[in-house]
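For concreteness, we quote verbatim a single protein encoded this way:
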Amino acid sequence: MADSSLGQARVSLRRVDADTGAVGHDPLVSTRPAGVTRPRSRLFYLPSLFLWAAVAIRVVGDTSGLDAAAARLAVGLLLLYAALVLSEHAITRRFGGYPALYAAVQIGLLSTLTFLLPDLDYFAVLYVPLSAQAMLIFARPAAYRWIGAFTLAMAVGLLATQDWPTGLSLIFLYAGAFLFVASYAAVTQQAETAREHSQLLLADLTEANRRLEAAADQVEALAVIQERTRLARDLHDSVTQTLYGLTLSAEAAARQLAAGETSGAVAELRELRDTAQQALKEMRLLVFELRPPLLEQEGLAVALRERLQAVEDRVGLTTTLIVDGAERLSPAVEADLDRITQEALNNALKHAQARHVTVRLRQDERTVALEIADDGVGFDVDAAGTRGGLGLRGMAERAAQLGGRLAVESRPGGGTRIRVEVPR
């Protein structure tokens, strides 16, 4: 379950990368094919209507003395132009091929107006909203091609209806306006696209975070189950077997006492006592592991003191804890040093037959030194290192992960001293 949730979260994050265009292209550059509309701001229509209203007012005033049919046709074409501008977005959403037809029809309308009323030179201003609209309708290359078509139609109309100096100046004026408005529309569109991608990214990251939190809860629950399974296994492998040995020793002692063999019974009873003491150590250790950990809340020094009081002191070992510097360390350093200490104390408790254990924790500005010493039976360090026994390899690996080193001093009958020194 946990692995599945984590996998789903990773898939979600990969989908975010695809949506934002993180692989292979700029997420702010549209890759829509020509004829596919982009979302656009409604504010686009407001300046478009202002420009249209200005032209319409001029047309009504300037055509008052012209032929009535031509005036009515001009007004009708202007109304059709406005209707097409306002309906373009809704129609394009239904018919993907409509934008090209729309742009071509608008060129025809404005060209007709230009030649219908050749004395009026301001119809070209209506190409300005069309230039901005092209940036919102088409992909970037197609948009510039249509703006070029608007410029060409405008230039032909003005050169055909105006004198050369006037027409040429108006061509440059309107062409500059087309490009300026188109560039502004492109920047605006880019900002809107970035905002959309940010919203999508935020939504997907929120979903991924929710899945990761759910996965973390499942991982934590799984860790609890695994820890309980380990403790149950340890209980069966150690304490249960020890209690079975106690039963056998008690039965053997009873038979020998019944047979009058007191010396043999005394030996069995001594064995029973030693086995019971070992079982007590194992039980204390398991009970301590079931307690809520103090390491995260209180720090390494408090966790070490709690361990010695809860386990070693209660099974009859004499313990000494020396702490020089009580500042909190980083969580990684405290966790690994705690595991090294637990492993060393477990070895002293289970195997060393020690009577006294000393733990020293010293900190300075650059290093942390931890030492665990006992007066137990000791062992051959070289032989133990070759076999990888007593958890020495695991302790050394933890010290190496922290950038430090582990030193082990021991000899048969001479106790054991384990020292680890790591950078802060």
In short: Residues 164-258 form the longest helix (95 residues).
